[in-house]
Amino acid sequence: MAEEMEGLSNRRDGDGSEELSPSVIYIEACENFQKQSYRNRCRFYAADGVQTLSFPIVHEGGTHKQPIAEIKVDHSKPWVLQHERAIISAYGTSAYFEYYQDELFAILESRPERLFDLNMALIRFFVEKTGICVDIRVTEDFCREAPEGCRDLREAIHPKRPNSILSDLGLEKPYFQVFASKYGFQKDLSIMDLLFNEGPDSILYLKKL
Q1: Which of 14, 145, 146, 158 could cross-link 152 (Cys pair, CB 3.0–4.6 Å)?
Q2: Segments of the chain with pLDDT less than 50
């Protein structure tokens, strides 16, 4: 999220006041599905430490050869109920969970057929609730190299590789977490961890980055 916030710029209206212009963020919609990536999973902070939630997908003819937009979610498994129980167990006592629970669970319970649609619904939900000022678009063609003027972050964060983006920039800062007294501050989590713990102040935390 730090990269997204860095792209924000100010512009002046006719009355001289400043408005925050949103960064334009493109979500890759034309790649082939990448296995063992964050495209169908996230990390969250549970009572037993950091855990992973993953959306099961339908494997049809080698998923690594299928476009991400065609990957289907496997709704034959009771993953929605399991995920909701895990999230409640982890964040039920957090300060703002009750304010966002119903809307988040409504997205999961709507059971989108395709993984990309589910991901986009979740991205738009968290962007809205955290107050991040971005113009989200999806790509129309696949480009191996990012167009001029764009920063390519498609492979910047991966569960199989250590992520030191914020620490390298000297921007790693803790915020309140429910189980921090047991295991300390945990980084590289789903943004739902920040939202459930910080609520409307999430955007203030992100701006400090």
Answers
A1: 146
A2: 1-18
